[in-house]
Amino acid sequence: MKPPQFEYDDPSSIEETLTLLTQYGEDAKILAGGQSLVPLLNFRLARPDRLIDINNVRELDYLRVEDGMLRIGALTRHSALERSSELGERVPLLRDAVRLVGHVQIRNRGTVGGSVAHADPAAELPVALTALSARFHARSSRGSRLLRADELFVTHLTTALEPDELLTEIEVPLPAPGTRHGFVEFSRRHGDFALGGAAVLLESGPDGSCRHAAIALLAAASTPLRASGAEQFLVGQRFNERVAAEAAERAVGDINPTGDIHGSSNYRRGLVKAMVRRALVQADSGAKEAA
Ligand code: FAD
């Protein structure tokens, strides 16, 4: 398979990229790791006139903690998240999620910004970032803006980014010390996109009851989805199997996943429910191991 013909630019700064996006935005596509875009080009599902390759924009490649925030440049590779010991200590949910992305070759090339901008509701990073209440920095020659996950992810493979906008940074508030996490998914074969999954964060108060809960669902809707009813239910509860099962039931109460050859809507709802329950149990058992 070969891609359709395209013009090619390889800017080396954000400013240069924004100038090109202003000039060609509607007819151009940004090329980051290429792990989603190149297959789309080869299948002729995308036919941009021009590719703007941002791999030389080194100022977009960083991972740092400052002012209670993890800051991830859009060009940071999945493998950089995997390798970062600071990330493993401060935001282990993200490390566990990224380890489930495809295969090592995909993670060596794929970027955090590409995964976010591609907006696949079955992708691990958008779901983990949604659970973490991450915010997304977008820039264009017109200015910059900061979006929440529910503002950025519009529907399947669609974000609120305008054609002339570049995703530059993802900022993740550091979870409070002692926050436990779980990330669970189910896929048919190792490395396949998951059919359902869940990311969970649990923070307990001094009496052991839940003070804050975050649950994000994978492949449950056309975007990553927070299960706010289940989160509210968990607050004030002491964790046990019955509470986990009830929260999982509430998490899928309103979802209507799209059925396909891999599973009906009903099957997928049941799968996501099981994944939420398991992610909650995983988060709780992490707390017991740490105790
Ligand atoms: P690209 O492919 O370069 O770009 C993707 C899209 O994002 C394009 O539309 C591009 O224009 C846009 N874009 C990229 N960067 C920016 C930016 N900074 N600002 C604005 N727009 C931008 N992913 C998973 O999550 N889980 C999996 O299990 C999984 N398995 C895979 C298995 C295979 C065999 C393959 C080939 C891919 C798989 N992927 C999986 C996809 C992979 O994770 C991609 O790396 C990721 O989805 C896109 O990142 P990228 O850097 O390669 O982006």
Please characterize this protein's 3D structure.
The chain has 291 residues and is an alpha+beta fold. It is 36% helix and 25% strand. It is built from 12 helices and 14 strands. It has helices spanning 14-24, 37-42, 78-83, 85-90, 92-98, 104-109, 112-118, 124-131, 149-152, 228-234, 241-251, 265-290, and strands at residues 7-9, 28-31, 50-53, 63-66, 69-73, 135-140, 143-148, 153-155, 158-159, 166-173, 180-186, 196-204, 210-218, 225-226. The strands form 4 sheets. It has a 5-stranded antiparallel β-sheet. The termini are far apart. The relative contact order is 0.12. It binds flavin-adenine dinucleotide. The site of flavin-adenine dinucleotide (FAD) has 28 residues, from strand 2, helix 2, helix 6, helix 7 and strand 10.
Short description:
The protein is of the alpha+beta class and 291 residues long. The chain has helices spanning 14-24, 37-42, 78-83, 85-90, 92-98, 104-109, 112-118, 124-131, 149-152, 228-234, 241-251, 265-290; strands at residues 7-9, 28-31, 50-53, 63-66, 69-73, 135-140, 143-148, 153-155, 158-159, 166-173, 180-186, 196-204, 210-218, 225-226.
How would you summarize the topology of this molecule?
Layout: E1 7-9, H1 14-24, E2 28-31, H2 37-42, E3 50-53, E4 63-66, E5 69-73, H3 78-83, H4 85-90, H5 92-98, H6 104-109, H7 112-118, H8 124-131, E6 135-140, E7 143-148, H9 149-152, E8 153-155, E9 158-159, E10 166-173, E11 180-186, E12 196-204, E13 210-218, E14 225-226, H10 228-234, H11 241-251, H12 265-290
Parallel strand pairs: 1-3, 2-3
Antiparallel strand pairs: 4-5, 5-10, 6-7, 6-10, 8-9, 11-12, 12-13, 13-14
Helix pairs in contact: 5-8, 10-11, 11-12
The structure holds flavin-adenine dinucleotide.
Flavin-adenine dinucleotide (FAD) binds next to strand 2, helix 2, helix 6, helix 7 and strand 10.
